[in-house]
Design a protein that fits this description.
- The strands form three sheets. This protein has a ten-stranded mixed beta sheet, sandwiched between helices. A two-stranded antiparallel ribbon has the order 2-3. Strands 11-12 form a two-stranded antiparallel sheet.
- The chain has two domains: 242 residues, Thiolase/Chalcone synthase (Peroxisomal Thiolase, Chain A, domain 1), CATH 3.40.47.10; 150 residues, Thiolase/Chalcone synthase (Peroxisomal Thiolase, Chain A, domain 1, 3-Layer(aba) Sandwich).
- The chain has 14 helices and 14 strands.
- The longest helix is centred in the N-terminal third of the chain and has 17 residues.
- With 414 residues, it is of the alpha/beta class.
């Protein structure tokens, strides 16, 4: 991020563990993005009934026992799976790593709603007698639960905490991990975001009351950012955690390198509870570029946040024009069109799906764009079919959230 920065201060990605509605590892996920395979399916949730959602199908028992699943949470299980996969992918000698120097930084949109809703629903069958309330409620619902379950499941004794940053949380987890490595608080960071949002009816009900819950006769076509006929957000679950290390440590052990965290930024709109602010989003992107010592035209691919709402899509596109208006190099894509909105996991998952472009030189498309909204007509917007590049060196990842929180992460080829 700073000219002349030492290899000890440069942070690299050495492992990726993920589960998405259309893939349970990076290879599967990338193949789905390149082939146009959606992971959105019909879904039913209490009180809402039939709807659509992005549902993950990872092997819960690969890294946990049935007892662990009964005691813990879906978000914790997603986190344990992703962290374990990231460690394996990084080729780390886990048995001999000092676990006190491993940090766990997990972004979430919300946590605790699922367990609270379920327990209240069951309690009414006992005339609301609280002696039937689960004694697991508190550890399941405390804010640090997803990161805490990872630390318990993997025997990590270093720092762990969750980062509540709405739908900017996946990026925020990555940023936190990079910062803690630079501060020397850990030697390995497991960082990113997770989501269990499809298991709480409250999220569906709230979006529905806003007129922002997507629907379509064909579930695969329900998530349609930038399309004139979009009608809202597809709620999804998922997770992506990265193994982050200092470049000097990664080189010393001969690790493979997915890319370097070149720049990042976070800021706040301070203007509305839910409506985005293009000015602040543009400022966040420009700040990340300055910190990376890059110009807009250095960016090869922008992974957009666009969720499939009119205000969200058009405001982000306005911000992108302000930042990249003169760039003849930059392509823009969107992963939510494939998997819906994975909330706290979105930033980390969407970045992960784009990172293979450093080697395969392909920008995956935004699918389900039949009638492009004129307000979203960006030069370089890749729709419906992937586009090959001569070279991909820089990816910028946008992730924005309610209450006006914005996050940007820039990764470069190394």
């Amino acid at each position: 991020m700073i000219a002349g920065m030492s290899e000890r201060d440069r942070i690299v990605i050495t492992g990726i563990g993920l589960t998405a509605p259309n893939g349970n590892n990076l290879g599967e996920f990338r193949e789905s993005l390149l082939s146009g395979r959606s992971g959105v399916t019909p879904y039913e949730i209490r009180y809402i009934g039939a709807t659509v959602a992005g549902v993950c199908h990872f092997d819960e028992l690969r890294y946990q026992k049935r007892k662990d699943l009964r005691r813990g949470t879906r978000a914790g299980s997603v986190g344990i799976y992703c962290a374990s996969e990231a460690i394996a992918d990084a080729g780390l000698d886990w048995a001999n790593i000092d676990k006190s120097m491993v940090g766990v930084y997990v972004g979430v949109t919300e946590h605790g709603n699922v367990e609270t809703e379920n327990e209240i629903y069951e309690l009414k069958g006992f005339d609301y007698d609280t002696k039937f309330w689960s004694h697991h409620h508190n550890p399941r619902t405390v804010a640090n639960n997803p990161a805490g379950e990872v630390s318990l499941g993997l025997g990590i004794t270093g720092p762990h905490y969750t980062i509540g940053a709405a739908c900017a949380a996946g990026n925020a987890g990555i940023i936190q991990g990079a910062q803690m490595l630079r501060l020397g608080e850990c030697d390995l960071a497991l960082a990113g975001g997770v989501s269990e949002s499809i298991h709480t009816f409250g999220i569906f009900a709230s979006f529905k009351s806003q007129g922002a819950l997507a629907s379509h006769a064909d579930a695969c076509r329900a998530s349609r950012p930038f399309d004139l006929d979009r009608n809202g957000i597809v709620v999804s679950e998922g997770g992506c955690l990265y193994a982050l290390e200092r470049l000097s440590d990664a080189k010393a052990r001969g690790a493979k390198l997915y890319g370097e965290i070149a720049g990042y930024a976070m800021n706040s709109d301070a203007s509305d509870f839910v409506l985005p602010n293009a000015d602040r989003q543009a400022e966040c992107m420009n700040l990340a570029l300055r910190r990376a010592h890059m110009a807009a035209e250095d960016v090869d691919i922008v992974s957009t946040h666009a969720t499939g709402t009119e205000s969200g899509d058009t405001q982000e596109c306005a911000a992108l024009r302000r930042v990249f208006g003169d760039s003849q190099n930059t392509l823009f894509n969107n992963s939510k069109s494939f998997i819906g909105h994975t909330m706290g996991a979105a930033g980390a998952l969407e970045l992960g799906g784009n990172l293979p472009a450093f080697s395969d030189r392909v920008c995956h498309a935004t699918i389900n764009v039949d009638r492009l909204d004129p307000q979203c007509a960006l030069d370089g917007l890749v729709i419906n079919e992937p586009r090959e590049r001569r070279r991909v060196d820089v990816i910028l990842n946008n992730s924005f959230g309610m209450l006006g929180i914005n996050s940007v992460v820039i990764v470069k080829r190394i």
